[in-house]
Automatic annotation (TrEMBL):
Superkingdom of source: Bacteria
Species of the source: Roseicyclus marinus
Family: Belongs to the UPF0178 family.
Protein name (record): UPF0178 protein MACH21_16510
InterPro entries xrefs: UPF0178
Organism lineage string: Bacteria, Pseudomonadati, Pseudomonadota, Alphaproteobacteria, Rhodobacterales
Pfam families, per database record: DUF188 (PF02639)
HAMAP family with a match to the protein in the record: UPF0178
Length: 148
């Protein structure tokens, strides 16, 4: 099963395409209803407006044999600890071996931003066609690894 942190996920259509090919169920989690295909493999869980409500539901549902798609590093850490495989919407695998460093970098950058009020540090690079392609390839590989 694929669990998707869906509120800001730019690759939902790609997830559906690969999931249909592999006949793998997809469960979307979001604060409120998101349009999605009316298909037996696709389900939607609305978490409501509470802070991190969708993340909490994903973390509870995550476990061995599941793939979580998220860019949220604290959520990724929780899913990894629950035994799930995790990847970002750019196709990057997040693992027990690399999540600690990524969380530390995230925290350091948050501290730096806090001390530079009024200044712009930029953000992630724009999502590109090559990112979309890399995601599709990584998702296909991950589902084959899970035996889907």
């Amino acid at each position: 099963m694929i669990l998707v942190d869906a509120d800001a996920c730019p690759v939902k259509e790609e997830i559906y395409t690969v999931a249909f090919r592999h006949k793998t169920p997809v469960r979307l989690f979001a604060g409120q209803y998101l349009r999605h295909p009316d298909h037996p493999l696709i389900s939607m869980t609305m978490a409501g407006d509470a802070f991190d409500a969708a993340d909490d539901l994903i973390a509870e549902a995550a476990g061995p044999g599941m793939l979580v798609i998220t860019a949220d590093l604290p959520l990724a850490d929780r899913a990894i600890k629950a035994g799930a495989q995790v990847m970002t919407h750019r196709g990057e695998a997040l693992t027990a071996a690399n999540i600690g460093g990524k969380l530390a970098t995230r925290d350091l950058l948050a501290d730096l931003r806090g001390g530079l009020e009024g200044q712009t540090l930029g953000g992630p690079r724009p999502f590109s066609k090559s990112d979309r392609s890399a995601f599709l390839q990584a998702l296909d590989r991950a589902l084959r690894t899970l035996g889907a």
